[in-house]
Amino acid sequence: MGAAPAKLNVLLLMADDLRDFGGAFTRETVKTPNLDRLRARGVTFERAYVQYPVCNPSRSSLLTGLRAEQTGIVGNNERLRQRMPDVVTLPQLCKEHGWHTTSFGKIFHLGGGKNLEAKQQWMDLGKSWHEAHAFEPTALGRKMIDGRNVTGGELNWCQWGAADGTDDDQPDGQIASATVAMIDKLGDQPWFIGCGFMKPHDPFIAPKKYFEQYPLSKIKVWRDPSDITPAPAQSIGFGAYGESFAKFTDQEWRELLRAYCAGTSFMDAQLGRVLDALDKHKLWDKTIVIFVGDHGYHTGERRWWNKNTLFERSCRAPLIIAAPGAQGGQVSRSIVEFVDLVPTVAELCGLTAPHTMAGLSLTPILASPLARIKDEAFTLVTRGPKLFGQSVRTERWRFTQWSDGAQELYDHDKDPEENHNVATVNPVVAAELSSRLKTLPLLRP
Description:
445 residues, alpha/beta, 8-stranded mixed β-sheet, 15 strands, globular
């Protein structure tokens, strides 16, 4: 009888609040040589959609393979284990079958306050991980050479800073260093490492040298078209955030986008250090490498600077997978969802999914990037305890249905930035897509 096949390592690389390209944030805007390097080895999914465009709900969905309607997690203040104490997560599945599992930084949401001890309580240490580590900037890294709060303090998080010190004076540098050290340490032992970078999430802080890559005078401010269709009040521009953003000058938009680009390039440099470790140990042929952003992000479109909308800019996020047998350097235009990641890794690792999955394995696309496995993706948001919206994205359309009856329909063949709501002039399309939303599980209270 032959020897059992060797277990593949799993490297889950996550960026925080990193949107996909388009709109105000283009490949020409930002420098990401290491993401480009990973794309050359893997399949880039250009139409990958999250199930809830906020950190904790999205990560809880991704790591369980369940929709947010099923987990019931729709905000950042509730731990996954409070809702689903016995659910088996993706790293837990590997842990229970012989992988050494370690988390560095933000894989599960780091809630519970700002200190390390509180964050540890959110990391699922014991069930999902053998080890889990959070990080803080050093005293030098907290020193800002330049920066300000662009809302004058109205929104505490809305600040940027060009920091003193080196990369390792910031959490993302420390996360990269710890990941590399763990890869060195584990050697041939099969491992699952979650490398969760914190940037470009607010506060928009990075070492000063990354800001220097982006002269403020070269940053272009996004302009919505003059005939843009006003969105429903619950859709975008709501609350204190919308009130503050409405007052932004071009200077504020430029400063924020510059800082977002700086944070992205900083994160990208740390990604490069981890990829160097895979090169050093010749691990590409025995490692599944997944890079994801936890959701999209508006960088000025519809005068919004955040996530938590059902527009394309918030629902679509980066996804790259490099794995043995995958077609390197290829691009998939297939619609896929982040709930597809658990069944994908389970299949590649020869494991049985721990419960009924909401998604499908992406392995057919990894083998043949022109393949299609589904023709729709679903995303949820809530607005308080009673109002919610559900959106379906198809090859051509995005349709959003709000629980108060409001509808939005955008034709991506003609309007990829979703500037014009055509629901009233396409009632048959709206009705057909509304019927698809009825197939979703009921939102768990």
